[in-house]
Write a structure and sequence with these properties.
The chain has 845 residues and is α+β, with helices and mostly antiparallel strands. Helices cover 49% and strands 13% of the residues. A hairpin with a 5-residue loop joins strand 12 (515-517) and strand 13 (523-525). Helix 15 (458-486) packs antiparallel against helix 21. The longest helix has 42 residues, at 282-323.
Length: 845
Amino acid sequence: MTTAVLSPLAEARPADGGVPARRAVIRWAWRLFRREWRQQFLILALVTVAVAATIVGSTVATNNPPPKSSGFGTAQDSVSFTTYDAHAASVIESLEHRFGHVEVIENETLSIPGSINTYQLRSEDPQGPFSGPMLSLVSGHYPSGPDQVAVTSGVASAFHLGVGSAWRVGGAAGQVVGIVENPQSLLDEFALVAPGQVTAPTAVTALFDAGSVPPSSFAKGYQVQTPASVAQSNPLNPETISLAALVLGMLLIALVSIGGFTVLAQRRMRSIGMLESTGATDRHVRLVISANGTVVGVVGAILGFVLGFVVWLAYRPSLEQSSHHVIGVFALSWPVVIAAMVLAVVAAYFAASRPARAMTKVPIVQALSGRPAPPRQIHRSALPGIIFLVLAFLLLGYAGGTNNGNGGGGAPELIFGLVLLVPGLILLAPFLLSLTARLGRRAPIAPRLALRDLARYRARSGSALAAISLGVLVAVIVMLAAASRYGNVFDYAGPNLSSDQLALHANTPPPAGTTIVTPNGKTHVQTAAAAAAGATPAELETHAKSIARALGAQLVALEAPNAQVIGSDLGRQWDGAIYVATPQLLRTFGISPSAIDPDADILSSRPGLSGVSGLALDYASGGKVGPSGSQSCTAAAGCLAHPVVQEVGALPLGTSAPNTVITEHAMREFHIHATTTDWLLQGAQPFTASQISSAELAASTTQLSVESKNDQPTSSAVVGWATIFGIVIALGVLGMSVGLVRSESASDLRTLAATGASSYTRRTLTAVTAGALGFLGALLGVVGGYIGMIGWLRSNSLNGGIAALGNVPIVDLLVLLLGMPAFAVVVAWLFAGREPVAMARQAIE
């Protein structure tokens, strides 16, 4: 044989097969995915749902607030004035000379008679160069003369107007020629008139386009704003929050998917052994499993985008109504959408990389036999996790000190502190599993085996426990933050009234010569005598009684004393009205006089007010006592230190309701006087929208305004939804993880069944696995949540300090700690009694 014949065989080739080999391995991984997609359905569904939820959630979060260009239209700059005077005119003239077009919008704030709501009388050019996106015609046409006006639907409803109606507004009569709206803010209620028709503006906005000129280069006599400067004023914008939630969600996916890809790798062990026996390198083996993870991530990201976009299209009309501005079809948060799809692929890839590395360490003969490799014993210290939690605690405390005005950190420290909580919990999860296995050594055989398996297969159970703890962590932080905020007895938060209550407030008479327009379209001019005298308290009470009779409600006069509650050593000061505990008020809420302490000075339904230190009753100092005053709280200064406070739960809890009242004993003791300017209407059932509208119409003819229940959520609603979120996340992870752990120990379960183990043993194994993972995950999440909140509040006296955590949602925490694991135990017990198939042999795939 000649050298010429042998020379082609001597050409150098890559030892690992090069690109063709890797291409063949990737094709094989794709065929495995198509053939075994049912086995990977849980992971695929998890990625799909996570991407879809991120797309919908981030789009809703970013579109729910007004758009960044709200108030700017197509302009890039704006400057505002309180009135159109000589200074404003000169500034606008200089801007026109420098930048060309300047569009001026004038607004005059007017009150809707009989209501606490207001609207704007606005002069704006519909054909203006910048304000096009801020004005849209619903019906009719825009006003073109001094006797024409167009109104929004809210103003039309409040004043019972329609196209063609005659209406007197701003002291001049006009005809309603159209219905308009502001697409960037559907809550913007205004009456549109032609430019120059607002005679007494209370706000003037000039829109212009300064190009690349920065706002800091303008004169100091006025402040120029841009959409970017408005957005930068809030670093924790919805897009930032969405990205943070996305990273946390994808971390959960990676933790849960590790177990799924590990089980899939175990099922393919014989195939991988055959691949290695034909010359595949460790790199090829890792590529098979990693490529499978990448394929799952890509398919899940695409399906998630499609599902999320379809859900967004269905929900968009409802969001426009709730967010009160028009939203485009493709108004997605594209940076978050792209990041979600990329991170989904990255999370699935890294989740598959861990079992990919583990499979290369299995000998070829053992892989061909199909026997799983024994789990490695890993002795991991809890010290790294503790260090991360301590660092998070210190950073959150440093960030919390900012609110006290004593220096400290801000948003970066707060974000990094919350981020450090995550690796702290992840690193503690394996240690907690090994500790639990040691504690269960003396337990009965079935629970002991279950706890031992959790420690043996901690590659799956550890990541599952970390995922559960992270879901519970988010829920606990929300619960504790809401409980501490709503538990602040001074700066009180919550709904203003209950649905069966209305508040009537006396208004200051308008000045003489003011044209008063009622919702029914009637007008009259305020006389000097009426402006000077106004309605007497008796007349106002007569009007209030008339409204109460029309609604079939009980009327309670609310007497306001010339006294106030102060707290000299609290970060926040008193928020809300204080009234007198009259016999009528006590009788309305079923409070017996015998149940009141004769020495009590204050009655309150605000929980914890009686235990506040530094509380004082200022009844004659005129505001000279307190943190901003110059006098200490003494009797000579007209101040009572440490008044006797009795908590009475029967008093209403609304922020505008009489939740705190001064007793008649204190009124007599300190010679406190009171006047009646407010009334409470207590109905037998919730007031309807038509009843509220009728009350506002009746009040518009008097000097009264009506306040009804707002949309502020209650503490129980926020805490309840956070609890549901934590339970759903925990149970979802448990449902997948328990199956993975038990499927990996399927050979042990077959052996137990073959030796006569009953269904009781099988049920106990699965139930203990689910209960232990659920309880340990909830415990770790609760501990992490408390570490974070204590770290934030320990140096934050403005928000009440650590004492703010005194209002602990015990029931909801117990539901997470005990109720959720107990539910998991019951479900696992019910569905784990079936005898395993093929007990005598290993199934061949």
